[in-house]
Amino acid sequence: YREAGIPVPDWHVISSDTRLDPAEWGPYVVIKPDLSRKGEGVHIKRTGRVRHKPEERGGATLIAQKFVYTGRWANHTRVATLFGRTLMQIRYAFRGANGVGGAPIVSNKLSSTYELADDPEIAALAERAHAAFPEIPLLGHDIVRDAETNELFLLESNTRGDVWLFSSGVGQDLQRRHGLDLYAQYGGLDRAAEALASRVAAEFGL
To answer: In whole angstroms, what is the distance from residue 76 CA to residue 156 CA?
Structure first.
């Protein structure tokens, strides 16, 4: 991503000789597996206490990621893109523990709030990020804004099909529980049709 000019937080694979300097990494880092679902295993830890613990891995590679302070409560914005076109933008905020002392900092929990977002800078970053993976049709990008510097950072781009929230069971439940209308936000289905048509035209020279 950095080669494509996409801002991502610094990260480091945790190994037996890992020792992170708080002066470089800050007082806290985010510990996360390289592959998980719904934020499982993602938590915050004091930088000086990061150590390799094989029993914590559960077969996954753990990484330490530089902590981006998003405000009193953890929050992020999920942007779904289809062939690089923004279809939806949802802001998640976690109203729970503030992420200190090993607490989870994932904002897609039952106690979270969900609201439609419309931040052109965030949408533009998601579309730039998708351009780095033109062979993947659908991506869900998790983006945070540093509350102190106002900088945007891409945390990850999800390739799982469950980022399609218009009609999936998870998506319909989310819309019903929180009063969201993803269809009306950007005319997402029309955008999806346009993106698909453009892709087909480009593939076949139409």
So the answer is: 11
Please give the Cα distance from 142 to 81 (Å, whole number). 11
For 33, 48, 77, 132, 149, the CA distances from 1, given in Å and listed in that order, are 19, 27, 18, 7, 21
Q: Which of 61, 77, 91, 66 is nearest to 157 (CA)?
A: 77
For 74, list phi and psi in degrees, rounded to 5: -60, 135
pLDDT in single tens digits along all 206 residues of the chain: 888 889 999 999 999 899 999 999 999 999 988 766 656 678 888 999 998 876 555 567 899 999 999 988 889 999 999 999 999 999 998 865 444 444 455 555 566 889 999 999 999 999 999 999 999 999 999 999 999 999 999 999 998 778 999 999 989 999 999 999 999 999 999 999 999 999 999 989 87
Structure tokens at 48: 């000086």
The token duo for 52 is 């390799």
Tokens of 116: 């439609």
Query: Which residues have C-beta within 8 Å of that of residue 172, sequence separation ≥ 6?
Result: none
Question: pTM to 2 decimals?
Answer: 0.87
129 phi and psi angles, rounded to 5 deg:
-65, -40
